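thought: fold this chain, then report.
action: predict
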Amino acid sequence: MEAFITASLFVVLAEMGDKTQLLGMAFATRYRWQTVLCGVFVATVLNHLFAVVVGSYITNYVPMSTVQIIASLSFIVFGLWTIRGDQLEGEDRERSMSPFWTVTVAFFIAEMGDKTQLATIALAAKFPNEIVPVWMGTTIGMMIANAIGILIGVVLGKQIPERIVKWGASLIFIFFGILGLYDALPREYLSVTRVSLFIAVLIALIYFVAKWGNQSSKPTPEAE
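observation:
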């Protein structure tokens, strides 16, 4: 019971204001809150199971910084994908991932190398004989923290135009992807020239993806 309570409280506190809570808030402005909550639950169960059972083993061979870099880059890609806006028009239900899988994949990626995943690994090490209570506790803690974010997102979603919601969610993804790269990359890689080039390329990608999304959202002559 101590392991369960400790894990739950630790994760609730760690998640307040964290990127995954903000993601829950952003997704709740776009999808049904039930869908978001289910996606968060599945992603958390899988990710924290990975952290408890496999994470500590993997980090003996693959540095956690590498995991963080891959997750951060994936997050930027997801932000660009959101800018294109397929999900907001409902097209994802026909030719791409459903809202449930969109939320699940996004949260799973967001948690890779995040402080709550690292905390789960640390808690599992602290309570080596209580892996299941730690797993359950961290999952419950995530659900409580993200339920708060989802509730706020539902309220905000009724008052904010869809275009602003889309760009707000996209910029959240990209911001935390950049932040993750900053934390994970060796400092010698962060020269002024490289950072400037990265920012220039990212801005160009945002511009072209947004333009692509606007063109694809225009009605075709057949549709008219």
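thought: worth noting. The longest helix spans residues 131-157.
final: tokens above.
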